Amino acid sequence: MEYSRIAARLLPGAVMCSLVLTGCFAGTDSRESNHAESSRQSSSADEAPPTLGTRSAAEVTCDDGLVVSISGTAVLRPGARIRPAYTASVADEDGQSVSYLTGMGEGGGGFASTRLMIGQSIEDRGIGTFILMDAMTGSEDEPGGGGTSVFCFVPEEDFELSYDLAEQAAERGLKQS
Q1: How far is it, in rounded angstroms, from Cα 114 to Cα 160?
Q2: Is 177 within the bounds of a domain?
Q3: Which of 8, 33, 100, 117 falls between 20 and 30 A from 150, CA-CA?
Q4: Is there a contact between 67 and 14 (Cβ–Cβ < 8 Å)?
């Protein structure tokens, strides 16, 4: 399934956040260090995963959040500050596309790389929840062809969104701090 078809089919009127369309990515430094703090996260990936092939991108919607994507070596910075920051990579495992999301927070917070299948989520406490909507592998033959992960980001009420995401939240009528 192509990225553009997701927006049209799943989320009529939804705003897509990508490097090219809205500039939601403030940087592309994928070498940032990660310090895991397990008390900050909870993940549906910790639960028994769904049977492979039982979830598809067409089954995942984003009514209460913002659709964001992370491609290649881009860094997603959804807040008003430089941290938190998130990176993702996509892999094909047994014919199933999966995404590995890593969170980097202020003062050593964040979470270690977490494997997510479509429909699974991870919560970064104090920030919000990321639900994997789709994962598309990139071109292995091209530099930076690391794939694209599409998430529904549901920010916590008191999390201060970046300017671009705050605008999108307002357009969608979502609560903001």
Answers
A1: 24
A2: no
A3: 33
A4: yes
Q: How far is CA 91 from the centre of its chain?
A: 15
Element housing 5 (H / E): helix 3-10
Find the domain containing 100 and state its range.
Answer: 3-47+54-172
For residue 133, give both structure tokens: 């909507």
Strands 148-155 and 66-71, by their bridges, are antiparallel
Instruction: Tell me the pLDDT tens digit for each residue of 1-20.
Output: 333 333 323 333 333 333 32
Q: Which residue from 166, 165, 176 is spatially nearest to 69, judged by alpha carbons?
A: 165
Burial of 131 (0-12, 13-18, 19+ CB in 10 A): buried
Contact between residue 156 and residue 66 where contact means Cβ atoms under 8 Å apart:
no
Of 112, 104, 101, 115, the residue nearest 150 (C-alpha): 101
Residue 25 domain-assigned (yes or no):
yes
| pLDDT per position as a tens digit, 78-124 | 999 999 999 999 998 888 899 999 999 887 778 999 999 999 999 99
